[in-house]
Structure prediction request, 91 residues.
Amino acid sequence: MIGLKKVILTISNQRGLHARAAAKFVKLAGEFLADITVAKDGQEVSGLSIMGLMMLAAAPGDQIEMTVAGDDADEALKALRELVENKFEEN
Prediction:
């Protein structure tokens, strides 16, 4: 795949990867052409699936692996990494 990138991120917001956080991730991921997947404990889901992301049950302190591939992989990785690192813009 073109531009394959992987990064390990730690969930640091108070409620983990819950519905609202997953929705923000999916909305942002949908702005890119890149193929985005997220994995936790060997389970991999599409970065465009709110239900899939919620099924990972990523709690605060858990690590997820995000894989991004495609022409705009660098931009997608940067934006999604910032979202996760900024605690999904939650207070």
